[in-house]
Amino acid sequence: MNSKNEISARLQQFVEERMQTTMLTGVLIGAAVAVSLIGIVVLFLYRRFKLPGVPQYRFRKRDKVLFYGRKIMRKVFSISIYPPTLQPKEPPPSLLEADLTEFDVQSSNMPSEVLYMLKNVRVLGHFEKPLFLELCRHMVFIELQEGESLFRPGDDDDSIFVVQDGRLELCIHENDGTEPVVKDVLPGDSVHSLLSILDIITGYPAPYKTVCARAATRATILRLPASAFESVFKKYPETLVRVIQIIMVRLQRVTFLALHNYLGLTTELFNPVGWKLISSHMIVCVCVCTQTHTWRVAGNDLNMACERARVTIDDTPSSPVTPKSSLKKSVTMQHTPSEVFHYTDSGGHSDAIHLSKSCTILQAAKKDLLGIIQLQDPSLLEGRVTLHQVKAGSVVARQGDQEVSIQFVISGLLHVYQRMIDREEETRLFVTHPGELVGQLAVLTGEPLIFTVRAQRDCIFLSISKTHFYEIMRVEPKVVLNVAHTVVRRMSSFVRQIDFALDWMAVEAGRAVYRQGEKSDSTFIVLSGRLRSVIMKEDGKKELIGEYGRGDLIGVVETLTHQNRATTVHAVRDSELAKLPEGALSSIKRKFPQVVTRLIHLLGQKILQQVNGPLTGFLALHTPGSKWDAGNQASNLSTVTVLPVSEEVPLTAFTLELQHALMAIGPTLLLTSEVIKQRLGAAALDSVHEYRLSSWLGQQEDLHRIVLYQTDYTLTPWTQRCIRQADCIIIVGLGEQDPVVGELERMLEGSAVRAQKQLVLLHREDGPPPTGTVDWLNMRSWISRHLHLSCPRRVFSKRSLPKLLELYQRVFEKPADRHSDFSRLARVLTGNAIALILGGGGARGCSQVGIMRALCEAGIPVDLIGGTSIGSLMGAIYAEDRSHSRMKMRAKEWAMEMTSVFKKVLDLTYPVTSMFSGAAFNSSISNVFKSKQIEDLRIPYFNITTDITASAMRVHTDGSLWRYVRASMSLSGYLPPLCDPKDGHLLMDGGYINNLPADVARSMGAKVVIAIDVGSRDETNLTNYGDSLSGWWLLWKRLNPLAEKVKVLNMAEIQTRLAYVCCVRQLESVKSSDYCEYIRPPIDRYRTLEFGKFDEIAEVGYQHGKTVFDVWTRSGVVDKMLKDRHQEEFHNTQSKNNVVSCPNASFTDLAEIVSRIEPVKPALRIMIVSNTLFYSRVVNVKLSHNNGPLRDYNILLILFDKLY
């Protein structure tokens, strides 16, 4: 009964629940139906009672385009307008391409023999037309059959031979009977020795001793007897001094530059046994007239010789006898050695007996000296010689001295020493005995002394200063012959052999020295002018490899490795080269095996530079000027042409300001058309004086660090000459004027000018900041760089030329301000720019503000600023204002804004790409820089970003400043990537790829880079947890207070470290480089987002920077930064070679390639019997190698293996 009741109760309960559910469902369905009905009724009533609509018009087809065009334009105008951007432009073809057409002898109006002779005679200087025609009258033609000798050892060495057609082989007869070919002489080339020509001129002809020449094919030879110069000098005696000086200059520069600086030879270049005076022997000059009045030199040539020697003498010859009261002042040396006593014939000594002995010695020594230099008038020595007595160990003259004298040893010995390459030790070259001269080469050339003269025992000698020697030479120029002969006698026979092999090349602007893919058969040394090396890649694009100026060595790698030319080298302007054939280099290696060690050292340095090169090459550096980032192109500029945009430009004041700044770096000369007319005459610019003007201008380049050419305001002959002489052209405009292209620039665009072009905009000190620079740049075809210069008021003052020169004469009495913009331009032009690089590190970057304050107080200028992340922000602020106080205020305002939590909360977004939208951060950056463009900054600036679209590093030197600063600070996960307004690429924080871009600054031309690193340091003392890791175990270790703490990276930290791997590798490379001064302040205790501690962090940076820079100042680091790099190379006697690398050379075959000596071809001995040639082969003798250099090769190979 009970069970039935339970069943009925459950059934009733179930039915009730079902009914409730059904009722609820019904209610919902009814509500939905009611809502639907209501909506239908409302829609019906709305359509029933609504107002009639506007009729839709149908477009005619001709109106449809106009309607939609207006609609689109309304949308375009509603978008915010971006500022104008720099249009990327490629350099014109003339900059990277050599002329396709070579010089054709057949198309010339002159006979080939005249052209060939003119080409080879120019090695002795620029002969004018009458002199050259006089020489041509002595030319003789010689026909040679194949194998026939042109000359053999024992024949008279008295001619210059020029090949008109065919080919000659120049050989050296060795002691073992072999005759290796050291030079192939092709049509247009010559066989001669400058030293042999000098022997003929000085009256000491000698036969060939070891050199011979034979015809490799049937050949026609032009012979110019050296005796022809005798008749020329009799008719035109004013050219004698100039020719002798040119021979001496080229002997010193080329022979010693190539053989000493590059090949490391020292004692091998000099003859240890000199020429001693024999009392009964009197030197007789056979090629000069003995009448003194015939030998007076014309003013122009002597003045040029005096300028070459850096001597200033009066235009009117002074009396041979100088008043005795002035002797003491005029004849002593500038740097008097210690413990040197002077005695002259002027009297006045307290000890009459000692004076009498000194006068006796002096008179006897002067008599002997007259016999050596063959001076006709003994009175010319009166008052111009000084008797010196030095004690043992005294230094008479030091290597590198500019003010030198000729010493004539009377008693004792003067030892001559020279510093060895890459070492501090010295080696003895030769000993000067009584009756011998020393120092005459430096006096004749005006070049610095190449050795040190030291007295090993008490010594007495006569001294003639450079000034007094040129005074004597003005009256009797033939003394230069005999003094030059004493120099030649000091040269070893080896130098004579190499002198035969060396060739001189005059290359016109645009002509190729050699082309890519040609056979490598010689090495070149730049004597004057400028060369550019360009490589053509497989896709047909051309890229600049480097530029080379005076003293640089090119083509050596391909020559040593026997590979085809890797690049094309052409002349930027008219240039002069010395050519060292491959055969001559092999001959040198055969005679002096130690040369191989020096060559391996040079090539090893180049290879190590490539191994330790900047990371930018590996990461495909993409910048608009990347083609010019192949090293410092301004490191060896010799000439700079200044060209105005308009007549309103104060050109004279600008060039004077620039000259003042350049003189703080090295000797600088400013040339204008008025200066040329005053110094060389009103007709100096006429075409008939082309050679003389070119010679004089080339001489000025030799004497000065930089020559400034100021053009006229119109295209005059002088303006054309300035453009032709330029290594670099500066286009000067007024920043306050509207952008414009000047008339001279338009004419410049039409000509194939290969020099670099730089734009300089002048601004007033109290004027507005620079704007609109991009318009100036877009108007021009291609500019290598631009600079803004803030000028003092005197630059814009309206003064007449005499008043202006008088003003700057007073300005030149004061040293130039190293912080001025003109000093910055001077350092940029000479390759001495100082760069400041600021790394990324969040709030730790606030310390850079303090370090930059200490940098300014230490007097260290900044010529280039670059940065990454927070460093890009700090650097941009300073580059805009150049004021530390203003920079600190703006940086602090931004840092305090970064501490606002409210703005960060409002900027939060759904974290698909990043946690923040980036709008608030964009606003904070744009408030700092407004609409400023990078091109408008006063100091050249760049920053680094990571292009995640192209997986490459980006270097930004133009465009919207705030956008690229923001992109450089875009940390992954926090901010979204910024879309580049130029190409839409996604840009992220530059710290991921290069957090301290010192290498980029170096590639932009900085000599010294001051790098400030504020990045965080990673923990390296991590826990070794074995082969596997349990997250639960790690969680227990972290939650349990009693457990031992472990250091294990989480996923975010691992990803961060992976992202910075490339950056860490690059940082270590920068820290170990020799050009970088690395600074890291003690800011590790501050976290990345602690911007609220701005003042504290900045003070830490200031105190650290103050300490560091104080140490730099006391230790001479600051002075070294400001010293010209060319002076450093000279004082260290180390020449940094810009050699073109050969891409196929490897480490393993380097020693073998360099030390390889080509087998000597069997010599052909020719016996002429009844006009029939009989040939006899000479057995080749195998050479034995010295074990010393081979041991060095093995050591070098081991070092190379260690590097890998």
Kindly report the average pLDDT value: 77
Largest sheet: 8 strands, mixed
Count the DSSP helices. Answer: 43
Helix content: 25-40%
CATH fold descriptor of the largest domain: Cytosolic phospholipase A2 catalytic domain
Relative strand content: 15-25%
> How many E-type strands?
41
Structural class: alpha+beta
Taken together, the total number of domains comes to 4
- The CATH homologous superfamily of the largest domain corresponds to Cytosolic phospholipase A2 catalytic domain
State the end-to-end distance: 101 Å
Tell me the Rg in angstroms.
39 Å
Instruction: Extract low-pLDDT stretches.
Output: 76-80, 277-298, 315-350, 613-631, 1129-1158, 1161-1204
CATH architecture of the largest domain: 3-Layer(aba) Sandwich
What is the top-level CATH class of the largest domain?
Alpha Beta
Give the overall silhouette. elongated
Protein name: lysophospholipase
Family: Belongs to the NTE family.
Subcellular location: Endoplasmic reticulum membrane
EC number: 3.1.1.5
Describe the structure.
InterPro entries: Acyl_Trfase/lysoPLipase (IPR016035), cNMP-bd_dom (IPR000595), cNMP-bd_dom_sf (IPR018490), NTE (IPR050301), NTE1_P-loop_dom (IPR056556), PNPLA_dom (IPR002641), RmlC-like_jellyroll (IPR014710). Its EC number is 3.1.1.5. Residues 123-250, 390-473, 479-606 form the Cyclic nucleotide-binding domain. Pfam families: cNMP_binding, NTE_Ploop, Patatin. The chain crosses the membrane at residues 21-46. 40% of the residues lie in helices and 18% in strands. The strands form nine sheets. Strands 32, 33, 34, 35, 36, 37, 38 and 39 form an eight-stranded mixed β-sheet that branches. The protein is built from 43 helices and 41 strands. It is elongated, with a radius of gyration of 39 Å. A hairpin with a 6-residue loop joins strand 13 (414-419) and strand 14 (426-432). The protein is of the alpha+beta class. The chain has four domains: 246-316 and 327-498, Jelly Rolls (Sandwich); 512-522 and 531-633 and 1149-1204, Sandwich (Jelly Rolls); 638-828, P-loop containing nucleotide triphosphate hydrolases (Rossmann fold, 3-Layer(aba) Sandwich); 833-1019 and 1066-1122, Cytosolic phospholipase A2 catalytic domain.
